[in-house]
Amino acid sequence: MAANRYQATGIEAEFELGSRGRVLRNLLGIVRVRDMNLAESQALEIAQDLALDRFDADHRFTAQDVCDLHTLWLGPIYPWAGEYRSVDIGKGGFQFAHARLIPGLMAQIEQGALRIHTPCRVGDDSALALALAEVHAELILVHPFREGNGRLARLLALLMALQAGLPPLDFSPMLGRGRRIYIGGIHAAMGRDYLPLAAVFEKIIVRSKRRAAANMR
């Protein structure tokens, strides 16, 4: 797991004592990767339920809402949850937005993609996939937080899809063999080309509908 962590320096890069540099400093004193993975997963389930109660079908999401979602999820675990990162980070040779630019970039996302696509009431699956792709890609490219950006972006996509009347999203097309295609879609979005990532979201929508239909039988 240490090899997959972002490279960064500063207070947000501190690791828990006794974790051998594998677990970020946290409020729970967790030192094992397995325990942290479990804690984050359980906290995400709780945050999802809280978010469903907080944000209804008519809600227009803002940059502050994104911060609030991050706090709902990781607030019990990390002291910096909900705060924009103050360090520059990269992963797999890719450098995300400079920390000093994040407030301005998030304001642009609020006035752009979030204002255009939320509340999300797109009826056509292709148009919905494109809307989800744009919001998701812009958040990933900014990477506003020290940790949890991908899962947070998926949580927001889930909430948007529910606004549009879809069942809970199955994100498995982003994983496994689909991971490389997903990453390619993110890279294409750097040039404002959201179609490759939209194709991934179309697969997600199809799979989600099929799973929901199967569960109703």
List keywords for this structure.
217 residues; mainly alpha; Fic-like fold; two-stranded antiparallel sheet; 2 strands; 53% helix; globular
Q: What do these coordinates show?
A:
By secondary structure, the chain is mostly helical. It has helices spanning 33-54, 63-74, 102-117, 125-142, 149-163, 179-189, 195-215, and strands at 90-91, 94-95. A two-stranded antiparallel sheet has the order 1-2. A hairpin with a 2-residue loop joins strand 1 and strand 2. Residues 1-6 have low confidence and may be disordered.
Q: Which regions are unreliable across 5 or more consecutive residues at pLDDT < 50?
A: 1-6
State mean pLDDT (0 to 100 scale): 93
Q: Count the helices. How many? A: 7
CATH superfamily: Fido-like domain
Count of individual domains: 1
The CATH level-2 architecture is identified as Orthogonal Bundle
What do we call the CATH topology?
Fic-like fold
Report the top-level CATH class: Mainly Alpha
Number of strand elements:
2
Report Rg.
17 Å
Distance between the termini: 40 Å
Largest sheet, in brief, is: 2 strands, antiparallel
Helical amount: 40-55%
- Structural class, judged by helices and strands? mainly alpha
Strand order of the largest sheet: 1-2
**What sequence of helices (H) and strands (E) makes up the elements?**
HHEEHHHHH
Beta-strand content bin:
under 5%
In short:
The protein has one domain (2-215): Fido-like domain (Fic-like fold), CATH 1.10.3290. It has 217 residues and is mainly α. Helix content is 53%, strand content 2%.
